[in-house]
């Protein structure tokens, strides 16, 4: 298995959840319960997405809010040309992790400035430079990407493009927002063009009036940490139910509660997943008669994770930035996931330099990263839905209707993206090994731009 920048180690654990019809609780099953901060779940049950949001982003107890040290920052870029090959690179990387008390280093950090330069080149090749260049970055981490992009534009774009550009980072973590200003401020001329807005990008009220000019949105390793919802079915033919998290009053343990489907955001996400059911196998289909008979003989519970946080964010972005172009990069799959369910997350805690993976998302106590694989087929559908094109098909009786403006979208492996837009020779070792092209096999780039075409 190729190296990925968040380690995952096998952790053997299994469990099953007993259930009842309608709204039922799993609190009696101790194997699925976990002690947790009462700051996350009070006396009222919460949807799984709200639980995950608190576990990651609670201002006092959330994983990303406690300290910026979860995201690593290198003092200087790695000189790959001085390393002999893969073994030397892995040894160098191991030393870096030992010297820094951090959970992980993102690709934009490991391959700075070249990773950010590749993104900047993709923007310059694609954007309409007759308009002032406006860039928004969601979840800018330590600011390394912003600085790298602004450096590249300053050195490679026409002077007027750099002088008139604006770069806005929308960052939910106040500690990371402060770090971004420090990083970008290393080049004094950048500061007049850069600002950080410390807020939740998915909250439409924070964006103000819609921006009618073309702009770019960058999201690097953002989709994987967006809250997801969980739906559950007791067997192959039973209806899907929403999963909520509640706390036992006597013990304080957390457990699942199943309710009939009613949440509007979950329903919209299922609509996106199910439209044109015969188009892809990912759709949640109605069971056939043989399947119903088989399910009675061999009933099997089902769990499916829905990217409702992604849907909410893209609905917000398309509403606030209707002419946006977008570049996103993230995991296309995650190895050794122990949490059950389709599109399930990896829940990982790092302590004293070693990582441990949890078999339940309820084990997250503000000290664990919760990150999901990105279903890029589903992401494209969510993008089309949020921009209005696919939504018109879902709401129309005529399924062949294609009202609205379909976006131009392409998904590329990280290696393909960097070979096209980057300078991969800069990340090559002496013997020709290139970690940028060879190691990140479970990550992809997603590019989406508006178009006036309706076909």
Which descriptor suits the 3D outline? globular
**How far apart lie the N and C ends?**
40 Å
Query: What is the arithmetic mean of pLDDT?
Result: 83
Which regions contain 5 or more consecutive residues with pLDDT less than 50?
A: 1-38, 276-283, 285-289, 397-402
Strand content: 15-25%
Helix content: 25-40%
**Major sheet:** 7 strands, antiparallel
How many β-strand stretches? 17
Radius of gyration over all CA atoms, rounded: 23 Å
Structural class: alpha+beta
Protein name: Protein arginine methyltransferase NDUFAF7
GO cellular component, one term: mitochondrion
Organism: Lactuca sativa
GO molecular function: protein-arginine omega-N symmetric methyltransferase activity
Brief digest:
The chain is an alpha+beta fold and 455 residues long. Helix content is 31%, strand content 19%. It comes from Lactuca sativa.
Characterize the structure shown:
The chain is α+β, with helices and mostly antiparallel strands. 31% of the residues lie in helices and 19% in strands. The protein is built from 15 helices and 17 strands. The protein has helices spanning 48-57, 63-66, 86-99, 107-110, 114-126, 144-156, 159-164, 174-184, 264-274, 289-297, 308-320, 376-387, 389-395, 414-421, 435-438; strands spanning 24-25, 34-35, 46-47, 134-138, 166-171, 194-198, 215-220, 229-233, 241-247, 253-260, 302-306, 324-331, 346-351, 354-358, 369-371, 408-413, 443-449. A hairpin with a 7-residue loop joins strand 8 and strand 9 (241-247). Helix 5 packs across helix 6 and helix 5 (114-126) crosses helix 14 (414-421). The longest helix has 14 residues, at 86-99. The two termini are 40 Å apart.
């Amino acid at each position: 298995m190729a190296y990925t920048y968040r380690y995952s180690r096998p952790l053997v654990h299994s469990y099953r959840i007993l259930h009842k019809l309608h709204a039922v609780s799993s609190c009696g099953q101790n194997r699925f319960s976990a002690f947790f901060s009462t700051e996350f779940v009070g006396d009222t049950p919460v949807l799984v997405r709200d639980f995950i949001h608190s576990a990651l982003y609670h201002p006092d107890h959330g994983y990303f809010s406690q300290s910026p040290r979860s995201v690593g920052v290198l003092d200087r870029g790695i000189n790959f040309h001085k390393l002999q090959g893969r073994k030397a690179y892995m040894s160098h990387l191991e030393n870096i992790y030992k010297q820094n008390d951090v959970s992980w280093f993102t690709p934009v950090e490991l391959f700075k400035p070249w990773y950010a330069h590749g993104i900047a080149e993709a923007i310059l090749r694609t954007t309409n430079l007759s308009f002032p260049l406006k860039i928004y970055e969601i979840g800018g981490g330590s600011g390394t990407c912003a600085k790298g992009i602004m450096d590249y534009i300053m050195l490679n774009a026409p002077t007027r493009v750099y002088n008139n550009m604006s770069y806005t980072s929308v960052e939910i973590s106040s500690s990371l927002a402060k770090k971004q200003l420090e990083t970008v401020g290393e080049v004094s001329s950048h500061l007049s063009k850069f600002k950080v807005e410390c807020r939740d990008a998915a909250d439409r009220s924070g964006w103000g009036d819609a921006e009618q000019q073309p702009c770019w949105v960058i999201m690097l390793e953002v989709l994987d940490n967006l809250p997801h919802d969980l739906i559950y079915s007791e067997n192959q033919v039973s209806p899907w139910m929403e999963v909520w998290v509640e706390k036992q009053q006597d013990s304080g343990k957390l457990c699942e509660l199943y309710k009939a489907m009613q949440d509007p955001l979950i329903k919209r996400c299922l609509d996106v997943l199910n439209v044109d059911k015969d188009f892809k196998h990912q759709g949640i289909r109605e069971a056939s008669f043989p399947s119903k008979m088989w399910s009675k003989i061999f009933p099997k519970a089902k769990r499916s994770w829905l990217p409702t946080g992604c849907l909410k964010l893209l609905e917000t972005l398309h509403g606030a930035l209707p002419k946006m172009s977008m570049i996103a990069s993230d995991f296309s799959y995650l190895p050794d996931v122990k949490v059950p369910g389709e599109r399930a997350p990896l829940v990982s805690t790092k302590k004293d330099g070693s990582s441990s993976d949890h078999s339940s998302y309820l084990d997250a106590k503000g000290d664990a990263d919760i990150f999901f694989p990105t279903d890029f087929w589903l992401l494209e559908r969510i993008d089309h839905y949020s921009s209005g094109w696919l939504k018109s098909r879902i709401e129309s009786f005529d399924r062949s209707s294609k009202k609205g403006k379909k976006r131009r979208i392409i998904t590329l492996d990280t290696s393909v993206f960097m070979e096209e837009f980057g300078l991969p020779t800069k990340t090559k070792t002496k013997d020709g090994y290139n970690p940028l092209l060879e190691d990140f096999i479970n990550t992809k780039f997603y590019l989406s731009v508006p178009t006036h075409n309706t076909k």
